[in-house]
Amino acid sequence: MSITIRPFVKRDLGRFIAAVAPLLPASAVNFALITDTHDKAKFATTYYGPTGYWHVREQGWLSTQLPLALRVHLGDLVDGSESPWLTKLRLRNIMADYRRGRVPFLVTKGNHDDNDKFAEKRPGHRGSFLPDVAQQLIFAADATQQHIAVSREGLLVQDFPGLRLIVLNTADVPLHDGRKIYDVKKTLAVSFAQLRDFALALKGAQNRDVLVMSHAPAMKQNGQPALKFNGRAVHELLRAFNLHASGWLNTGKTPEFGGQLRFDFTQTTGQMIAYLAGHYHLEADYQVNGIHYSLQNTSALMGRHHGLTTKFNRRYDRRFGTPSEYAGYVVSVDVQRRLLSLYGYGAASRVRRFVY
């Protein structure tokens, strides 16, 4: 299948491919990553718009030009600010692009993908999606692929020699007594059910090193949780995994999020590589208790003069129709050299490398 992309993008990504291809070891796990496309039907040349879908298609083209094992999207596929039928259409279009491509994919949910940005302005929060929408449109597509395990809550697991990839759903807000009681756009969370599956996924890594990804990181740079529910719990499980420890984790009593969790990593020999995330619309690398958190910039256009543009993106002076319009990455995990490399294009740092 031929993928048509914009000529200026093809030229820019062609230069990126030429520079990056020699840097990708055949023995490494190499994959394309984008996050926060914030796709919407309403056109804009300064902030978000249908360019989000174009960026997904352009990632698809890039994945056919390099030896990549995966395409990854870390959530906020859509902006969630339009009518429910329109947001669902945009979600379907994005997931259709992943499904018809030749490269396997891991796509997770972001806090905008439940359309709560639209619903916040409507009486009774009308237009907000129930959890089954993400199940049907996002996670069911992930589950159609061989070698990728998908839990009911949207935890994704895929193994490679010496490496386990785990993708957490940090917009995991279950119904309470059959009702939606949280605004998902404002409530980053991992349910207790998913936390339990996460502990089992870490235990199942055995001798593999682990790379964790999600829409939002578990912890902020200041050492405080980035999630309303169970951010600290996710982080403590990662610390325990590095220590090959066992024990109990108390996550409180809040329904759907609280409970007593038993974990046992005494038979594992691998180490935590890093935790890759988006959500904050900037790049940052920091450590909390020895866990490396790495934030990736938003794919979506954020023009310099828009009030919601982050300082990070304002410095790039991002403009429609130029390479600064988008941002994406090729990630290389070299388990033999114990080296994590992130190569950026568009409004992204060109090279970041970390020994783990």
Backbone structural class = alpha/beta
Poorly predicted ranges (pLDDT <50, ≥5 residues)? none
Order of helices and strands: HEHEHEHHEEEHEHEEEEEHEEE
How many separate helices?
A: 8
**Fraction in helix:** 25-40%
> In angstroms, what separates the terminal alpha carbons?
38 Å
Would you write up a description of this structure?
Residues 31-242 form the Calcineurin-like phosphoesterase domain. The protein is of the alpha/beta class. It has one domain: Metallo-dependent phosphatases (Purple Acid Phosphatase, chain A, domain 2, 4-Layer Sandwich). Helix content is 26%, strand content 22%. The protein has helices at 7-20, 51-65, 84-100, 116-119, 131-143, 192-203, 231-243, 311-316; strands at 29-34, 70-73, 105-107, 148-150, 156-160, 163-168, 209-214, 246-250, 260-264, 272-277, 284-288, 291-295, 327-334, 339-346, 351-355. It has a 7-stranded mixed β-sheet with strand order 4-5-6-7-10-12-11, with helices on both faces. A 6-stranded mixed β-sheet has the order 3-2-1-13-14-15. α6 (192-203) links the parallel β6 and β7. α2 runs parallel beside α3 (84-100), α3 runs parallel beside α5 (131-143) and α6 (192-203) packs parallel to α7. The longest helix is centred in the N-terminal third of the chain and has 17 residues, at 84-100. The model has no long low-confidence stretch (mean pLDDT 97).
Task: Write the SSE topology.
Elements: H1 7-20, E1 29-34, H2 51-65, E2 70-73, H3 84-100, E3 105-107, H4 116-119, H5 131-143, E4 148-150, E5 156-160, E6 163-168, H6 192-203, E7 209-214, H7 231-243, E8 246-250, E9 260-264, E10 272-277, E11 284-288, E12 291-295, H8 311-316, E13 327-334, E14 339-346, E15 351-355
Parallel strand pairs: 1-2, 2-3, 6-7, 7-10, 10-12
Antiparallel strand pairs: 1-13, 4-5, 5-6, 8-9, 11-12, 13-14, 14-15
Domain Calcineurin-like phosphoesterase: 31-242
GO molecular function, one term: hydrolase activity
Organism: Lacticaseibacillus chiayiensis
